[in-house]
Write the structure tokens for this entry.
Amino acid sequence: MRLYILHLGDCYVDKGSVLTPGLDSGMWWTIPIVGYLIRTDDGRNILVDSGMDKAHIADPEATFRGQPFGEVLKVRMRAEDYVVNRLGELGLTPADIDILVATHFHFDHAGNTRDFTASEVYVQRDCYEDIMRLDAPYPRATYDVPGLKWHVVDGEPEIAPGVQLLKTPGHTPGHMSVAVSLPRTGKVIIGIDAIYVQDNLDRDNWGAYQDPVAARASARRLQAMDHAMLLYGHDPAQWATLKKSPDFYE
């Protein structure tokens, strides 16, 4: 089994406004936008998140133009950062993806869901119910996709040998992380946005999360799990140390 880390663009953010409210306001960071490809021993391809909508390549303000949030987050996305192009670098097309794990539906994690109508889209029930509300605060293009093959799950199933979904609510209802057990590297916990950056843990700062109490509990649970690597959602210091596709962990 192999784990590929896909670079799907960057955002330039005011750290204290976006990642650690009340701490380091006015400090600007470039943070990675990340997807993950798991190639299983039985020949399946599992994609975890699809990154930002390709519309941001031509129009960086496509999502937040005219909104206050657009003043504290600036999208930087090149053509090669489009998830379809990253898969293409590995000789894959969207039709080759058996499962898309939709960890949650924020713009930087589910922007290209519409490209994966041939895949089973795994989502936690709490998350599915949240996005289907009439007043759901998510870009419609991330979930309102005709012909999408939803696979709604409850709990923490193993979706392939050595690949387990983890419920980590707090950032959003039904947020998911993923545990991958690799033969050489060991267990890798793909935390997604259960933990944005190391400072969330070190400074006990969960103010950017919808439910800070649940977020803290989810993050501490991941931290306490047996693992060789715990991958944060958007930590630039950790990002600099990681292998990126086409390199891989195995």
In short: The domain at 2-239 is CATH 3.60.15.10 (Metallo-beta-lactamase; Chain A). Helices lie at 15-18, 55-58, 83-89, 125-131, 198-202, 212-224, 236-239.
